[in-house]
TrEMBL record:
InterPro entries: EXOC6/Sec15, EXOC6/Sec15_C, EXOC6/Sec15_C_dom1, EXOC6_Sec15_N, EXOC6PINT-1/Sec15/Tip20_C_dom2. This is EXOC6 protein. Residues 380-693 form the Exocyst complex subunit EXOC6/Sec15 C-terminal domain. The lineage of its organism: Eukaryota, Metazoa, Chordata, Craniata, Vertebrata. Keywords: Exocytosis, Transport. Belongs to the SEC15 family. One of its GO terms (biological process) is intracellular protein transport. Residues 17-186 form the Exocyst complex component EXOC6/Sec15 N-terminal domain. The gene is Exoc6. It holds the Pfam family Sec15_C. It comes from Formicarius rufipectus. GO terms for cellular component: exocyst; plasma membrane. It comes from the Eukaryota.
Length: 693
């Protein structure tokens, strides 16, 4: 340390001490060597002795090694063979291991090819998925695996194309067979409704029957047997008839949906399917131009629509997400608007009430079928009310023709009945009651003509025809009663009234016929209450109900009667004018003939015979009195106009006397009371002005 610290003379002192230390060590070494020198010499001597022995040993070892090498050549050869076998064995083991890894891949690929050949595409996609995720990664270093990996996307595209082709074939198939599917569904819905109605009636009978001793048990057992047979028949029917869904093989849809879902293109498939079905819906909703001509045209149209929505409903319930309730509701609302527009247009062309009724029945079955599948159909039943008005119009046109035919065929004379059987036949058709007539013996005559019972029966037939349309409309008895009364009122106030008015105005209808028409309308008016009872019995709605409408037949027949009465007055006046026209007065004659004019006597005789017919009128002679007064006034006015004619320049006393004789005959006719019921000289007053002139 002192050396490093650079103390004065430190280095020299260090060197001196170091030399002293070296000398000490040299002395110790010398002492040690002197002590071991003899041992060293002895060891050298022994080594020299061993040298000769070592050379001999070397020779022996060399010889031994040579002999050992010669002896081990065969062992070495065998050992090398063993080594080679071991290498081969190891290689075989390695190959087996690799093959064991590759074989599942090859087996799966072979399975994939087989599935493709037998068209099990969904299973093939699952196999591809296993190949890609499990098997191929284990042997990805091999070239054949790369080839497989390259082929898998191509196979997927091939599967997509094939499945899409199958889907297109499926869509085309259901488009062609949708009418058959819909027809089957509608038949089943109709059968189910019929069965439910029968069952409900059966239950009502069971509920309302009286369970008396013995008879109650028999009735109950019969009902049970009937109900059991109904169930058995229904079961047999179900076994024989396939459901609408059974008529369609939906596997292409399921397969394509699964395939696209596995491939991650489920949304693409859903959009494609919905787009194609919307197109098909538009085609299905497009009617044929001649659809309104036959029932089959409407049936096919409805069947196609039902078939379309039955398929969609099935797809909705058996697939997840392919179609949704929102989608089907939107599609149905679009279809419903189109259907209603089509039916409004085509039904307006229908002039046959039977065809309109068939259309209504088809619409009801159509609505009930789709309602059973969960589609709202209230708008269809609203449409039926529109069609009901049209149906009533077609009925009114048809019954207008029937009424005209009845009026044309009528002889307008009282109905003769020769015996009790004929009398019962007539009153079975028309509710006629007359105690006075019942007391008379046969043969006798009923006051009305043959058209009255026929008209009454046709009105009842009209009510039945109108009732047919009201059935199955899911309306209450009160509503049906109201509909029947309104349609019957239309028949009476419009159709029958119009026919009566036209009949009265016809030129070939004479006074006798007009009198009979008045009698007929009186009896028809009295029969209106029986028509109201008839409707009440059909609908089970009492006439005492507040909202029950009344028939307007009273006003209809009163109007017709008034028109007939007015026509009687008109025709009487026309007949008087005809007689007046043949009057040939010689206004310059020197003296009268001494008797009334021939034309006037003929006219008075005509009036007498005419007013005798009026005694049959069931109106207390008021019509006859009015007709008689009108005729006398018209005759008086006509004679006065003749006398005061401006073209008449001069009149002789003889002409005045002759004219006076004619006026006297008129006054005598008035005073003879041709129609009973006039008070005093009321009728003669019609000629007082003429007498004064």
């Amino acid at each position: 340390r002192s050396v490093y610290d650079d103390q004065p003379n430190a280095h020299q002192k260090f060197m001196e001490k170091l030399d002293a230390c070296i000398r000490n060590h040299d002395r110790e070494i010398e002492k040690m060597c002197n002590f071991h020198h003899q041992g060293f010499v002895d060891a050298i001597t022994e080594l020299l002795k061993v040298r000769a022995d070592a050379e001999k040993l070397k020779v022996q070892v060399t010889d031994t090694n040579r002999r050992l090498q010669d002896a081990g050549k065969e062992v070495i050869a065998q050992t090398e063979e063993i080594i080679r076998c071991k290498v081969q064995q190891r290689n075989i083991t390695t190959v087996v291991e690799k093959l064991q890894l590759c074989l599942p891949v090859l087996e799966m690929y072979s399975k994939l090819k087989e599935q493709m050949n037998v068209k099990r595409y969904y299973s093939a996609l699952k196999t591809m998925e296993q190949l890609e995720n499990i098997y191929l990664p284990r042997v990805s270093q091999y070239r054949f695996c790369q080839i497989m990996m390259e082929n898998l996307p191509k196979l997927r595209e091939e599967i997509k194309e094939i499945s899409m082709s199958d889907l297109k074939d499926f869509l085309e198939s259901i488009r062609k067979h949708s009418d058959r599917i819909g027809e089957t569904a509608m038949k089943q819905a109709q059968q189910q409704k019929t069965f439910s109605t029968t069952l409900q009636k059966q239950n009502n009978v069971n509920y309302g029957r009286n369970m008396h001793l013995g008879r109650g048990r028999i009735s109950e057992s019969k009902n049970e047997i009937t109900l059991k047979r109904t169930f058995e028949d229904d079961d047999e029917h179900e076994e024989e008839v396939l459901t609408a869904q059974d008529l369609v093989d939906f596997s292409p849809v399921y397969r394509c949906l699964h395939i696209y879902s596995v491939l991650g293109d489920g949304e693409i498939f859903e959009n494609y399917y919905r787009k194609q079905r919307r197109k098909q819906a538009r085609l299905v909703l497009q009617p044929q131009s001649s659809m309104h001509e036959t029932v089959e045209g409407y049936r096919r149209y409805f069947s196609q629509i039902v078939g379309f929505f039955v398929v969609e409903d099935h797809i909705l319930h058996v697939t997840q997400g392919l179609v949704t309730r929102t989608y089907t509701d939107e599609l149905w609302n679009m279809a419903l608007s189109k259907i209603i527009a089509v039916l409004r247009t085509h039904s307006s062309y229908c002039t046959d009430p039977d065809l309109v009724l068939e259309l209504k029945n088809l619409i009801v079955v159509f609505a009930d079928t789709l309602q059973g599948y969960g589609f709202p159909v209230n708008r269809l039943f609203d449409l039926l009310f529109e069609i009901r008005d049209q149906y009533n119009e077609t009925l009114l046109k048809k019954w207008s023709g029937l009424f005209r035919d009845i009026f044309e065929a009528d002889n307008y004379s009282p109905i003769p009945v020769a015996n009790e059987e004929e009398y019962k036949t007539v009153i079975s058709k028309f509710p006629f009651q007359d105690p006075e007539l019942d007391k008379q013996s046969f043969p006798k005559k009923l006051p009305m003509s043959q058209s009255v019972p026929q008209i009454y029966m046709q009105v009842k037939e009209f009510i039945y025809a109108s009732l047919k349309f009201s059935e199955s409309l899911h309306r209450s008895s009160t509503e049906i009663d109201d509909m029947l009364r309104k349609s019957t009122n239309l028949l009476l106030t419009r159709t029958l009234s119009s026919c009566l008015q036209n009949l009265i105005k016809k030129p070939h209808i004479g006074l006798t016929e007009l009198v009979q028409i008045i009698i007929n309308t009186t009896h028809l008016e009295q029969a209106c209450k029986y028509l109201e009872d008839f409707i009440s019995n059909i609908t089970n709605i009492s006439q005492l109900t507040v909202h029950t409408a009344r028939l307007y037949g009273l006003s209809t027949f009163k109007d017709a009667r008034h028109a007939a009465e007015g026509e009687i007055y008109t025709k009487l006046n026309q007949k008087i004018d005809e007689f007046i026209q043949i009057a040939d007065y010689d206004w310059t004659m020197s003296e009268s003939d001494g008797r009334a004019s021939g034309y006037l006597m003929d006219l008075i005789n005509f009036l007498r015979s005419t007013f005798q017919v009026f005694t049959h009128l069931p109106v207390s002679g008021k019509v006859a009195q009015t007709a008689c007064m009108s005729a006398c006034q018209h005759l008086s006015m006509s004679l006065m106009q003749m006398l005061l004619d401006s073209e008449l320049k001069q009149i002789s006393m003889g002409a005045i006397q002759q004219f006076n004789l004619d006026v006297i005959q008129c006054e005598l006719f008035a005073s003879s009371e041709p129609v009973p019921g006039f008070q005093g000289d009321t009728l003669q007053l019609a000629f007082i002005d003429l007498r004064q002139v």
